[in-house]
Amino acid sequence: MSMSEVMLKLRQVEKDILATGKVDGPELERLRKELYAHDKIERPEADFLVELHKRVQHLSPAFEQFFYQAIKDYVLVHGRIDAQEAAWLRRA
After folding, report:
1. pLDDT confidence of 85, banded at 50, 70, 90?
2. N or C terminus of the chain with fewer C-beta within 10 Å?
3. Could you say which DSSP state residue 37 is in?
4. How many Å apart are CA 13 and CA 25, to the nearest integer?
């Protein structure tokens, strides 16, 4: 699956999440499935997740845990944080 296909699916998940204002149960599983479609989170997906986190009205503990783990998985993909990833974290 190409990155554009993944992002298209993520936008649909985002639309459904924003309609309810929360991420739980089925929405969280859909989000997890799409974000880890390539077994790792890449930059466009991490950017998407940060923006979604800002826009969700009701942040559940499960979504918070998922969010921070996914960002950690993205940033530490090489086992360390380089300057580019540090700059991204500061902006996020």
Report:
1. confident
2. N
3. T
4. 13
| Tokens at 78, concatenated | 């090489």
What's the whole-model pTM score? 0.87
Q: How far is CA 81 from CA 27, 46, 73, 74, 75, in A?
A: 30, 15, 11, 10, 6
Residues linked to residue 58 through DSSP beta bridges, in sequence order: 22
Distance of CA 74 to the CA centre of its chain: 9
Number of Cβ within 10 Å of residue 74's Cβ equals 22
CA 13/CA 32 separation, integer angstroms: 10
Residues in the chain: 92
**What is d(CA 16, CA 2) in angstroms, rounded to the nearest whole number?**
22
The letter for the amino acid at 33 is K
For 17-58, how does the pLDDT look when each residue is reduced to its tens digit (9 = 90+)?
999 888 888 999 999 999 998 888 989 999 999 999 999 988
